[in-house]
Structure formats: C-alpha cells, structure tokens
Amino acid sequence: EVQLVESGGGLVQPGGSLRLSCAASGFTLSSYWMSWVRQAPGKGLEWVANIKQDGSEKYYVDSVKGRFTISRDNAKNSLYLQMNSLRAEDTAVYYCARDAGICSAGSCYDNWGQGSLVTVSS
Amino acid sequence: EIVMTQSPPTLSVSPGERATLSCRASQSISGNLAWYQHKPGQAPRLLIYDASTRATGIPARFSGSGSGTEFTLTISSLQSEDFAVYYCQQYNSWPPKYTFGQGTKLEI
After folding, report:
1. Which residues on adjacent β-strands are paired with residue A21?
2. From the CA atom positions of chain B, what is the Rg in Å?
3. Nearest CA of chain A to the CA of B12: how many Å?
4. What secondary structure does DSSP assign to B15-81, as a single string?
5. B43 vs A115: CB contact, 8 Å cut-off?
6. How do residues B1-60 score in pLDDT, each as one tens digit?
7. Of A61, A104, A111, which has the smallest distance from its Cβ to B50's Cβ?
C-alpha cells in the first residue's frame, strides 16, 4: 500500500524557518516526480514545488522562489521542503503528493499524504 | 500563469440527482486537466485526468469532458459519500506552474 506521511510542521514566527519531511513507503520513490501542495485556511489547493526523480530538476511557484527548497533522498525514501523567511501567508496545510505518471503533459497526483500544518505567526 | 476558475462556488443538490461542475482556464490547456475530490481531514483523491479519463477505482458515475478552456465534471446519481469539495487542476504549462481552481463545494 502506498503511504506518504508528512512531519515537521508547527508554529513558527515570521522570518523563521521550518523543514517538512515526507516519508514514502509502498513504492519506489526514485521512480516518481514528487510535489508539495498546500492549502491555506479556508482556501483552495496551491501547487508549491516539484522535483524530478533524480533531483536534477526542481520548480517552484513564484511566491516561494528563493525562500523554499525542495529536495529528496531516495535512499531514505524521503522528500523534504526547507522553508526559510516564512511569512504569514505561508500558513497552510502542506501535502506531499506523488505524480501519477499517467497524465499526458505534466503532473497530476494519485497519492497524497494527510498533510502537515504550518502556522506562521508571532 | 494560467488561472483556473470554477463555478459555482457552492452547489446544493440532493442524493440521487445529477451534479454538473464547471472549470474554465484563462488560456487553452488542451485536455491537460485533472479533477480531485477533497473531504475535510482527508487527502485529496484523483478522480479524472486528461479531462475525461477516470482514475483507477473511480466509479462510473463520475465523468469528465471538455478541452481547450472549458471543462465539466458530471456526477450522475449523487451518493451521500460524494458530498465534498471538488478541484480542477491544469498541468499544461512548462516549466511547470500547475494551478488549481478555487474549488466547488457540493452540499446537500
């Protein structure tokens, strides 16, 4: 059974840092693009970043470029999101999501974690 | 950035009825669109990809259609477990700047 379990969320002050982790099991992580998607309170889903199977390509939504870094350790079956210079508007539930590998021109997501809440507040 | 607009924001229907949800892209995305179901406290669930292909294990009462800028998710004969928020997502852009719609809440 495919499982994605996020951890590392919590309360952080504006300007602070946090590192999210996503532990993957039930599949070979190195075979899939992976992404982070977030949902701010009362809002819809927002794609944040994705990373190629070998980590050689990474892409970000404009609002987090230069502040967030996506990475992976396939040997540890783990995906990460390092978040620096956090702002109140980064408050959200952060999901890791697996690229289904079936969508014609890009990524759609067939497996998601339960999410990790990040709250940025003083 | 491709903006995805869903309508209506909320749709009130009864079990057994048909629901039609709309999603519009700000520019053509061909058929590169997915639909998700999201219930509170749960992970989103992929329903439809490539605009009209049902994902594995998705009941036949869910169907998707459209191309270009106009897309529709239809749920025939609503079941109680179908009441949730539905999102569309485009994956047409490269480099990837995937965007979701703001969601349609399906309620009784």
Report:
1. A7, A80
2. 13
3. 19
4. TTS-EEEEEEESS--TT-EEEEEE-TTS--EEEEETTTEEPTT--TTEEEEEETTEEEEEESS--GG
5. yes
6. 899 999 999 999 999 999 999 999 999 999 999 999 999 889 999 999 999 999 999 999
7. A104
